[in-house]
Amino acid sequence: MLRIGLTGGIAAGKSVVARRLAELGAVVIDHDALAREVVAPGSVGLEEVAEAFGDGVLAEDGTLDRPALGRLVFDDAAARSRLEGILHPEIRRIAAEREALAGAADARAVVVHDIPLLVETGQAEHFHLLVVVHAPAEQRVARLVDGRGMDDAAARARVAAQAGDEERTAVADVTLDGTGTEDALRAQVDELWARLVRELDEEADAVTSRA
Ligand SMILES: CC(C)(COP(=O)(O)OP(=O)(O)OC[C@H]1O[C@@H](n2cnc3c(N)ncnc32)[C@H](O)[C@@H]1O)[C@@H](O)C(=O)NCCC(=O)NCCS
Ligand SMILES: Nc1ncnc2c1ncn2[C@@H]1O[C@H](COP(=O)(O)OP(=O)(O)OP(=O)(O)O)[C@@H](O)[C@H]1O
């Protein structure tokens, strides 16, 4: 199994890269999606979040009011760290379980962990290959405001809640340029994939010829 860590600042283009890798045959484990699963209705995670942050973070139907919780945590490092303390252990447990399943199904699986906070949570050394999608903070703020309808202050608070661009690129094995079009980004992923497949094939050939 080849384990890849994929990260990048918010709106750098991680999802574009992850979707392309999945199309090419990788098993993608999306940690943002897991962060939603662990607070699904009826989950222990949701109960713990409501206990920690009050019923104001619950919508009328009892589901998590994500914008309300976002307003509480993105301007407050202590609150954010409390939320992460509740959610991250469970997210990691499920991610490890999904990875094990992928490995059991196919020993040659390429498993990609799409993790926004990969560097912040000290996981840079956990992968065979660390891929960082890079686009400068100002461009990412503009994408959040224009593309996702976030207000400028909220967009800047999210960017500020994450590692700086240099911290991420410093630990990257591969840096993808997320500043151009989505097509241009997908083309870089295709190139990377072709290289990985070639390397995996060469490794398999070397093992066969040694046997
Ligand atoms: C606060 C919450 C409810 C806001 O939900 P919302 O639907 O608005 O955002 P969503 O979860 O889709 O995240 C969008 C992006 O925000 C950024 N982000 C999310 N959580 C964090 C965080 N704790 N610190 C910094 N950036 C974050 C990431 O770039 C992510 O891709 C949610 O982000 C959350 O539960 N965060 C804590 C869990 C977490 O750390 N997730 C990210 C990595 S696993
Ligand atoms: N290269 C690009 N050119 C133009 N727009 C882009 C590009 N890459 C991504 N976008 C747009 O920017 C927004 C964010 O992209 P994407 O969802 O891939 O970011 P992300 O890194 O996954 O963010 P998050 O941290 O929120 O998961 C989307 O609306 C997407 O369409």
TrEMBL record:
Report the pathway entry.
Answer: Cofactor biosynthesis; coenzyme A biosynthesis; CoA from (R)-pantothenate: step 5/5
Any idea which positions bind ATP?
A11, A12, G13, K14, S15, V16
Its EC number is 2.7.1.24
One Pfam family in the UniProt entry: CoaE
InterPro entries in the cross-refs: Depp_CoAkinase, P-loop_NTPase
GO MF annotations, alphabetized = dephospho-CoA kinase activity
Name the keywords, alphabetized: ATP-binding, Coenzyme A biosynthesis, Cytoplasm, Kinase, Nucleotide-binding, Transferase
Localization? Cytoplasm
Give the chief site where it resides: cytoplasm
Is Transferase given among the entry's keywords? yes
* SUPFAM superfamilies recorded: P-loop containing nucleoside triphosphate hydrolases (SSF52540)
Q: Which reaction does it catalyse?
A: 3'-dephospho-CoA + ATP = ADP + CoA + H(+)
Which family does the similarity line name? Belongs to the CoaE family.
- What is the role of this chain? Catalyzes the phosphorylation of the 3'-hydroxyl group of dephosphocoenzyme A to form coenzyme A.
Q: Could you identify this protein by its name?
A: Dephospho-CoA kinase
Q: What organism is recorded for this protein? A: Isoptericola peretonis
